[in-house]
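Can anyone check this?
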Amino acid sequence: MKIESVDTFLTYSFCLVRIRTDTGITGWGQSAYWAYPDASERIVNQFREYLIGKDPLQIERHWYYLFRQRPFRGNALSSAVSAVDIALWDIAGRHFQVPAYQLLGGKQREKVRLHYIMSGATVDELVTSAELALKEGFTAVKVDPLPAGYQQWRHARLIEEAVKRVRAVRETVGLDVDVGIEIHRKLVPSDAIALARELEPFRPFFYEDPILHESIDSHAEVAEKVNIPLAIGERHNLIHEFRDLLARDAVHYVRPDVGLAGGITHCKKIATVAESFHAGVICHNFLSPLLDAASVQLNVAIPNCTLLEYYMVCEAPPRSELLVKSLKREGGYIIAPEGPGLGVEVNEAFIKKHPYEPVKGQPPLHEDGSVAYH
């Protein structure tokens, strides 16, 4: 079996990769580099010359060749490798007629527990979102407690408003639902520490990305001074970064993204390193149902899956139209699929129906016009 073609598609806000073999098997992958998907696409197109004619089952060899063929690194490169890697695992499962998780060592679990991404700009809207999560059967939710325009607020008012939002969510869901706190890297260490101490009485399950992701030392400082487990990693892409975070006691739940951190191959290694530190895995995952499927394959097979991030927007058009048939969700869990490869079929009509629209935006600004942390 040889790789016959490698095609890339920019559609909606996605970069999709389709790899076909000379035996008629097709595998699909996707980059999670959502800010600049066209950058990932251009890199995958440069991979094509190497991949054509190769055995698609030599997945790890291809991973190393593509990642190391030029002396550079970064999210655009790792996400391009991720998309190819996911497609190759899809092919491998289809070749052997088993789910990809069987080739990763088999099932560790029958279903993957999800945490619901909440939405809402006000306390009342967050309460409504929490009520929906309960109605849908989720046993874990995640809230960003920082209000819109937080960059303009004074320290005391910011903390007061954030606490108000978390208190409302906890009172709505009770003690039988885990509540994660998502800061989206918006604070400096001093503010992150002060806020965490005020949130501790609400017993958060984790405190995610409290500060910018670049400094391991700063994460270690935050972890040392708060009593909420830190969840870090959605902007990291190498096993070495996760190892260093773990070695510094700077993270308790690692958060790799299969579409960014080297695909299924590399994220399996990240999970293993985390296991050696008794750390859980809560994969970053919000972009599409295809990446849901790849994430589920990984999480079914690893022993330390704690939660999988889940964005219910993917259950509705237009994102849901990417798949012929959705994964099966029962309450707050996705059931392990039994189909070969990723266990889903891509609807290629999606590509023509939804023209590419790059994500637009700007960083938040302080009242003096300077760029805020983000």
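Reply from J.R.: I decoded it. The chain is about 40% helix and 15% strand.
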